[in-house]
Amino acid sequence: INERDIIMKTVRIKAYAKVNLFLDIVGKENGYHLLDTVVTTVDLFDSITLTARKDKKIVLKTGGGLYSVTENSDNNAYKAAALYSERFSTAGADIVLNKHIPVGSGLGGSSADIAGVLIGMEKLYSKCKDLKPLADELGSDSGYLLSGGWARLKGRGEIVEKLDIDKKLYFFIITADGGVNTSECYRLYDSTEKAPVSFGADKLISDLSSGDAESYDLYNALYAPATTINENVKKAYEFIKDLSPKAVVMSGSGSSVAGIFDTAELCQWAQAKAKYLFKNTFVTESLSDAEIKKRSGAGRTLYSPAEAD
Description:
Blueprint: E1 10-29, E2 32-52, E3 58-62, H1 76-88, E4 93-98, H2 109-125, H3 132-138, H4 142-145, E5 151-155, E6 159-162, E7 170-175, H5 182-190, H6 201-210, E8 219-220, H7 223-229, H8 231-241, E9 247-250, E10 256-261, H9 264-274, E11 280-287, H10 289-295, E12 303-305
Helix pairs in contact: 1-2, 5-7, 7-8
């Protein structure tokens, strides 16, 4: 077949956000903080469309999403496509990224975009059986977000232990204005006194697995430094706490705070209460990897054929 006659293939990807329900820092190695964190993917996603090119170029455009990001080689979506193309000597791609996960929010948007683009490139070019090593090179949560669902992550986030949890959680999330710089947050964490945690991730995993807990012991070691950097994080946390959720926690290094409520309706009620106080709010729910597969059509986890949307 003459290459000029090949119809340029297009795929669409949903790159799902994550919420950290428990996040402890258990050490430091080669300058990196070592984590122990329990995460779930949630039904909030960036939409990514990739079209194969005949040349080696990567062209990134941001479409009609809610948030704007750079369209150059500084963007992690671009880096993921470039790494795949270089590693496997493939042609490039035109990428349209619609951002619905807030930037710098602790919801893993950048890592999700890396995972989504790698899956998209694999759908276009079929050169890599295992995308995780590539994902791990680019972002700490990206390997996990190739499949998502419930997991416990260790190391820098690259050690993924899948969890057998089928509990559905309903979240009301506020992304506090001003964001939190992750490196600054970790630096501040290193320089402050730590109060020991009286419980670990095991208790939360057990409560989620049994499915009948009245409340959950959630924890984030980065909450104190994040609130020092951005007091809006504390305002969001206190606002949700006052609405009597089952639990409330900051995700990642902020600036998003997630409250767990018994129903989606209660989350919508909470969102209505927050309407005039906070700009970025979301009602969403946890997604197992099986649900992600179902929503994404046949094939790889975050992949859906272009016609599926």
